[in-house]
């Protein structure tokens, strides 16, 4: 049963956490509903691609990575890390990761912990046959990402109007990413949903519609012109107006930038 959105922030302190054998801590976010896109609390920060706002309903609880995936975790799982910021340290977010790198990493995480792999990968063809019913590690859908980042509130930067309190952007990052978890967490205890590195999601980039959606996974097929996978959250190099919890970005899935990383989720089995 869905949790009323107004109660979600009140329950933040009681939300359970879980760490697998690899030590990636996840927070259990309850099922519920929210308004996705350009909402009242985003006034002054909205962009064309965030309209119209629309209701999204989730039928399942979701385990969400408390932080972005770090350089150390990525290297432990994959054997090496593509990051360019060598001096940043093991606790900095992994970056220079393509979308294809991200789904391969998710599958490898599942394999390492004895979980089902969510993705079928054949070269550059990636399928997600069980959708949100898969309980292994995966990328969040775009809607799941925004729901988790908002944490039951309607403010530009999740739990606050102060971007510098929420994350690392061009206003305070001084030209580099920073260790995860140094800024204020949102109402559900998630760090760096604003800034540091952009985070890959599953969805192909597409237009919003007004109708209510349940467990959406984005367009079934990519757009014929300029197909991109959605990125969320802004980064250390982005302006504060494009680091909000509603801002949408997208890149070709084979593109890997020094300000692009990931955060993993898992559908809660029960």
Structure, described:
With 270 residues, the protein is of the alpha+beta class. It is 14% helix and 18% strand. The chain has a 4-stranded antiparallel beta sheet with strand order 1-2-5-13, with no helix packed on it. Strands 11-10-8-12 form a 4-stranded mixed beta sheet, with helices on one face. It has a 3-stranded mixed beta sheet with strand order 3-4-9, covered by helices on one side. Strand 1 (17-19) and strand 2 (25-29) form a beta hairpin.
Q: Layout of SSEs?
A:
Elements: H1 5-8, E1 17-19, E2 25-29, E3 33-36, E4 54-57, E5 62-65, H2 71-78, H3 99-112, E6 120-122, E7 125-127, H4 142-150, H5 163-166, E8 198-204, E9 213-214, E10 229-232, E11 248-251, E12 260-261, E13 265-267
Parallel strand pairs: 4-9, 8-12
Antiparallel strand pairs: 1-2, 2-5, 3-4, 5-13, 6-7, 8-10, 10-11
- For the termini, the CA-CA separation is 12 Å
Mean pLDDT: 93
Order of helices and strands: HEEEEEHHEEHHEEEEEE
Q: Count of DSSP E strands?
A: 13
Question: Helix coverage percent of residues?
Answer: 10-25%
Oligomer: single chain
Biggest pleated-sheet summary? 4 strands, antiparallel
Query: What Rg, in angstroms, do the CA atoms define?
Result: 17 Å
Portion in beta strands: 15-25%
Number of helices: 5
SS class: alpha+beta
Strand order of the largest sheet: 1-2-5-13
Produce a short descriptive summary.
This protein is 14% helix and 18% strand. With 270 residues, the protein is of the alpha+beta class.
For this entry, give a set of tags.
disordered N terminus, 4-stranded mixed β-sheet, 5 helices, globular, alpha+beta, 270 residues
